[in-house]
Amino acid sequence: MSTDGLNDSEWAERLSDEEYRILREAGTERAGTSELLHVSSEGVFQCAGCGQELYTTDEKYDSGTGWPSFWAPADSDAVRRESDPGLLGTRTEVICNQCDGHLGHVFSDGPEPTGERHCINGVALDLDTE
Ligand SMILES: [Zn+2]
Hints:
Elements: H1 8-14, H2 17-23, E1 44-47, E2 53-56, E3 60-61, E4 69-70, E5 79-84, E6 91-96, E7 102-107, E8 117-120, E9 125-128
Antiparallel strand pairs: 1-2, 1-9, 3-4, 4-8, 5-6, 6-7, 7-8
Bound molecules: zinc ion.
Zinc ion binds next to loops.
């Protein structure tokens, strides 16, 4: 589905309040609140903003942080990374490459083979287990 050129009010109509706060305003959900923290079936995590495939259960692991965590995206082109300077130092933001929605952050304390921890808001993801 195309989300090109949607303005803020169109996004607000399309998304729930919480999805809007996270995807469009780079918010963060409360730790431990996502129903996607523990997933028992295999599937694909799509962007809640545009439906693009972002992550799969193959790369998902339990980081113990309270946010859904992945050691790699489904496709390296699905997300892009941007420097996110803040009070606690500069972090690396992860953004959906298709709709520019904020997903979460990536850290370098993840498991092999990448050593990356993609710390993603569950609100920004829709799980498709077809
Ligand atoms: Zn998206």
